[in-house]
Amino acid sequence: MLYLIISNVALLLFFSIYWFGTRKLTFFHWNRCYLICSLVVAYCIPLGLYLKLPTSELMHFKLPEIIVGLSPVSATSNAQSAEVTGNFSLPSWSTIYWIGVCLFAIWLIIRLIRLLQLIQQGNGKQSFSFFGKIVINNELRDDEYNQVYLHEEEHRKQGHSFDIMLIELFRVFNWFNPVYQLLIKELKFLHECIVDEKHAENKVSYAELLLAQAMDTQRTVLQHEFSNHSLLKNRIMMLFKEKTDYKFKATYLLALPASLLLLMLVVNCRQAEKETKTVETEVAKPKTEEIVLEDVPDNEPFQGELVEKAEILAEYPGGFNNFRSFVQENYTYPQAAIDAGVKGKVEASFIIGSDGKISNIKIIEDLKHGTGEALIAAIKKAEDWKPAIRNGQKVATKYTIPLRLDLTQM
């Protein structure tokens, strides 16, 4: 949701620069490039919200959470229950959004089908182009026919239909943004101005031909018509307008501060999201002191090189679920924790050496009352693992296992 908000606000900002700054300039090619590039940039920069830069911390593998109550429940059942619990209904805004996406996608498909049918059938009074297809009014005189054909052929050469279809695809997923209607109209206008500028040698006769053709055309969006009512007035005005001085190209530099503003917004949103998660974690997690057990050395020796990644992960006899089930069955709910009504998560990390033995069991998160010690005791009883493999060599890897204590699990 945040991505859609930022990207569409960015698009609105870039389009405002075009509308109030460069729209009336005669740099048609530059305006076309600006609109397409601003569309891409508006949706690329907010992707920084989801980019994760590599960190120097050692990677460890986290096993699925185990739930332990007064009565044992299988780890497989817990995992399935968690999956079922997670399948809640989508928020209303998300449902509405995807319904809108589906409707606009259907609308686009219907328009494409109608256009293809029109191309296949031909049209006696309308001249237009769509990608490599060109339809010319068969009632034109030879000289007019040639001029209209060259016009539509130029649309085809410059790939103007690709621009329109690109924006139409973006609009399917951003249907709620009204700026797309203006964006498509302006881009089609620029396409026509680009072609008019190149092929209007006699501006007066060319304008007369536009007026004559406009009487028999229908308003469409996907294809490029030789003459269109909604664009005709502005096209003729641009046809006779004096060329803009090159110094006004500096107006496009306004996009730079807009891009920097967008980058700052993304960075601030990412930082705010990170701080929010930190606060939520601090509130959710019980504040505990660091646990140091006398029988667990701080740096217990283990065999092999501890690596971040391995081609083949360490494997417990019978698989990960078997290890989770073993820990669950061998975990003894401390009486002190029962008396205190303790409820929450205990998490431990451990290292699987290149010899498959478990070592360096550390409590990362604890609920006190002996809950951490009980988890260490359960892990110690487990069998040796089949070690991880990297580059054909046995290596050591680090794992964490979360265990949730809940007295209501009967």
From TrEMBL:
Cellular component, GO annotation: outer membrane-bounded periplasmic space; plasma membrane protein complex
Stretches assigned to the TonB C-terminal domain: 318-410
Keywords: Membrane, Transmembrane, Transmembrane helix
Molecular function as annotated in GO: energy transducer activity
Coiled coil: none
UniProt entry tagged with the keyword Membrane: yes
Transmembrane stretches, start-end: 6-21, 33-51, 96-116, 250-267
GO biological process: siderophore transport; transmembrane transport
InterPro entries for this protein: TonB, TonB-dependent_transducer, TonB_C
The protein's name: TonB C-terminal domain-containing protein
Source organism of the structure: Sphingobacterium zhuxiongii
